[in-house]
Design goal:
By secondary structure, the protein is α/β, with parallel strands linked by helices. The chain is 37% helix and 17% strand. The strands form six sheets. The protein has a five-stranded parallel sheet with strand order 11-14-17-10-18. A four-stranded mixed sheet has the order 1-2-4-3.
Length: 504
């Protein structure tokens, strides 16, 4: 009878259990692998053979058949090396198989038998716990990421011999769940920013409601400096949010300190980034920047420098907050719930609207800004002009508020939203659709009058109108006001003013 070893793989950020069946029979020596294994898995034959021999065990000279079940799932990667090697050693009685079915075994082997770090250990450990197999044997370098899973017993090893010894003597105690560290201070703090009170206020509104935002103004005015400080005022990640983010980094091998990510991501891709780098894909269907920014901030510095075609692909994920990437061999879905923060110069020379002289013609300006399509502009909630500071502002500037103080207010406003959306499955105002807007954005009669007159005066589009209501809702929440009044509406309208003071 064929011997079975529990292994696992992942698709997207979901773990999938896989049975490695090993059958060794008499016949001409052969080593076959079946069950939709791709080239990268088939290569494991050579590694497994060398690792077994170089660890001092005997490689059987028989007919070996490995079946990876379920057969309809495409399997790739080197993470089946270890379960295949253990299966062969078990089938030839070189390892004790007592209670072997209580474990998920994964790991890549090098030719000398040592175990190398694999991608996706976290989603695999989570899946194991979900299916009731909570003991996991993994390479030592993956131990930290697995220790963030509650109820998981992690058995990390450096090489094949250690795994064999473990099954013989059961003398190692597992690593258990470790409480994640308390977030330390952020690298950047808003107390470093002098002046710019109106932009800071707009950023606080954006952070409070999870809104998308464009910062525009002359070069050197501090747009990037401010954007980099946004994560420092966002609420801390919950355990579940942290797990989601960490899983994304786990499957693409980007977990640098091998531990739970407890800070909201801030991604700042270069403007030469390709479409695949931004949204994900490629032959391995890897996640892109929008997923690496999940539960955090995607900052597109100098957004007009990005290729228009690259920017356009952001439209759908901005609406859906998930991205489905397909290719001939299959498709995966990655979460991508991020705040989009973009910066741009208002014209080619950069000085238009500022306290310096602009040397561009109107045609040049319009052509420049025209690179930003209307559908993309429609998905932005707030616009804030960042001017260069005058000499007086720099020298007289009062001490700026710290990120910690701003963050306390943001957390309070987010709590109001969590309470409101408890039954709706949303977590912030930016996520509201028409149905929610109708339900939760009640205006006072004065506010209604203001909206009517501004709406007619500025010919606001319907989509922009919804954005204004959502941002007003956030401002009202910041003031702990149940209804949206005229002050909230007027402030939200201010944030729809783009270049030329045009309301869009
Ligand atoms: Zn200019």
């Amino acid at each position: 009878m064929a011997l079975q070893i529990n292994a696992a793989t992942f698709t997207g950020i979901d773990g999938i259990t896989v049975n490695v069946e090993v059958d060794i029979s008499k016949g001409l020596p052969a080593f076959n692998m079946v069950g939709l294994a791709d080239v990268s898995v088939k290569e494991s034959k050579e590694r497994v053979r060398s690792a077994i021999i170089n660890s001092g065990f005997t490689f059987p000279i028989n007919r070996i058949t490995i079946n990876l079940a379920p057969a309809d799932l495409k399997k790739e990667g080197a993470l089946f090396d270890l379960p295949i090697a253990i299966g062969i050693l078990a089938a030839t009685h070189q390892i004790s198989i007592d209670s072997i079915d209580e474990y998920i075994i994964i790991g890549e082997l090098s030719l000398n038998g040592s175990l190398k770090k694999i991608k996706g250990a976290l989603p695999i450990a989570l899946k194991g716990v979900k299916e009731g197999i909570n003991k996991i044997i993994i390479p030592t370098d993956n131990s930290k990421e697995c220790c963030i899973v509650k109820d998981c017993s992690v058995f990390p090893f450096d090489n094949l011999s250690q795994v064999v010894d473990y099954f013989e003597y059961k003398d190692s105690l597992p690593y258990k769940y470790e409480e994640p560290p308390i977030p330390e201070n952020f690298e950047f703090d808003f107390s470093d920013i002098i002046g710019q009170e109106s932009s800071k206020r707009a950023i606080e509104v954006a952070a409070s409601g999870g809104h998308n935002m464009i910062l525009f103004g002359p070069p050197g005015s501090g747009k990037t400096m401010m954007a980099k400080r946004i994560p420092s005022i966002l609420p801390p990640l919950s355990y579940d949010e942290s797990l989601e983010v960490t899983q994304i980094y786990s499957v693409c091998g980007k977990l640098e300190d091998n531990n739970l990510i407890f800070k909201r991501p801030f991604r700042n891709p270069h403007h030469t980034s390709s479409q695949i780098a931004l949204v994900g894909g490629g032959s391995k269907l890897i996640p892109g920047e929008i997923s690496l920014s999940h539960n955090g901030v995607l900052f597109l510095d100098e957004i007009l420098e990005f290729k228009k075609s690259v920017l356009e692909v952001l439209r759908q994920p901005l609406e859906d907050r998930v991205i489905k990437i397909s290719k001939a061999t299959g498709s995966v879905t990655y979460p991508c719930n991020f705040m989009l923060i973009a910066s741009l110069n208002p014209c080619p020379c950069g000085n238009y609207g500022s306290n310096k002289e602009c040397t561009c013609t109107e045609y040049e300006r319009k052509r420049y800004i025209g690179k930003l399509s209307n559908p993309l502009l429609d998905r932005m909630d707030l616009f804030s002009f960042v001017n260069t500071l005058t000499y007086e502002e720099i020298t007289k500037g009062k001490k700026s508020e710290s990120s910690e103080d701003i963050r306390k207010r943001v957390i309070k406003t987010r709590e109001i939203q969590s309470e409101r959306f408890r039954k709706d499955g949303l977590y912030c105002n930016a996520q509201m659709d028409q149905k929610h807007i109708k339900k939760y954005c009640e205006l006072t009669s004065d506010a209604n009058k203001i909206v009517k007159s501004l709406y007619n005066k500025f010919k606001v589009s319907t989509r922009a109108y919804s954005r204004i209501l959502k941002v007003s809702r956030t401002i009202a929440d910041m003031n702990e006001s149940e209804k949206i009044n005229q002050i909230h509406i007027i402030e939200a309208m201010q944030y729809r003013k783009f270049i030329d003071e045009k309301i869009i």
